[in-house]
Amino acid sequence: MTSVQVDEQHGGHSAAVNEPEEGYQRGLGNRQIQMIAIGGAIGTGLFLGAGKAISKAGPSLILAYAIAGLVIFFIMRALGELLMYRPVSGSFSEYAREFLGPFFGFVTGWTYWLFWVVTGITEVTAAAAYVQYWNEDIPQWASALVFTVLLYFVNLISVKLFGELEFWFSMVKVTAIIGMILIGLGVILFGFSDAGDTASFSQLWSHGGFFPKGIGGTLMTLQIVMFAFLAVELVGVTAGEATNPKKTLPQAINTVPWRIALFYLGALIIILSVVSWTVFEPGVSPFVAAFAKIGLPAGAGIVNFVVLTAALSSCNSGMYSTGRMLRDLSLNGQGPKFFNTLSPSGLPLRGTTVSAVFMLFGVFINYQWPGKAFDYVVSFATISGMWAWIMILCSQLVYRRKVNAGLLPRSDFQAPGYPWTSVFALAFIGMVIVLMGIDEDARISLYCAPIWGLIMAVSYFVIGRRNPSAFARKTEVIDATAAEREPADRAPQN
Fold it and tell me: A Pfam family in this protein (predicted)?
């Protein structure tokens, strides 16, 4: 907590609460924050993963996305409340450290770093595979190398350039989905194209009903659905570099419901009305199937380009977030001091560089051993991403309890329905984790978690022995800072 926030606890002014003391430049404007938020909610999970989910649940997948989308909104409102209390780039890692204890902050920071490294590995490798759609002669490793290096240098120039690139990546995805919805709606209403004779909203219930695989089939798709929403919380990491976080972040978070309604529910309703759910297969993009049914020969190429941008967008986000997470851990004594330094333009150069090297190493692993071992590593992304959500919700519950007790200032952007919305979201995530244990394909994620937890526990013990101050509770640090500053802070009032 900054000295300004300590002052606010003791009756000082709140106007400067948003001023960063981390050294970052506030280079992300409202336009870029909005598109980063949209891009975080739209990824390969929708463009590719939805095919497998449709084959498992049929049209009832729409309901699964609606319920999961509501949970995501609760998570984002909880995050928004914390962000307006203290907008920092460490985001949920910082909040876990302050409200749940140093161990949880330590685990959250490193887990989120690993999440984005693993995600970056998979996405840049996928992007290289998408390039081969147009030219099979281009080696996959060469494309992966070019993409990784290119995005690395983008993230080294300025945070504004990162935001601009993310803006256009997101714009491509948004344009593709809106185009698909408009074309599909035209086919349904006016009957043109090859799909005009069969396209109808009745497709949603005429092939075995809305729940053709039963409620159980719908429930078993929830882990796929939640995976599609991973990275929506990335907007929280931008808090320390947003030009006006008190305005832009609430606006971005409040758009979550309509984004999910349009880009997920709207797209799925149209696609499943144009093409019967029985046509879809795992590994086949529902967008490709819909374009093929409509009779657009360029459809597959269009979707391939969109998915390529989605993969590059995710890798770009990984480059951005990993460097900031490593620096946040370093500043708190929970990571190597090597990552403390910022570049003259206010960028965490060293953290971004090390993360990029790990991503390149992952591409090498995928090139050498593309079998099950790599799939097991990738499966960790789901459970690690949900850990960040759990920490956001738990931190918000503790924060609000302290606010109600008069110990902390109230946020300007309170989550509605406290505490029930956060409790419901936690219970829902718990149910998804149980379902992952039942699903043979997803179970491996739960095997990875205890191993990573053991690594974290041992690391926490070793670092704590060498540097006990690194794991002093955040509240103790706040109290100590307040005690040191109180005479100076109160002097002008006399």
Answer: AA_permease
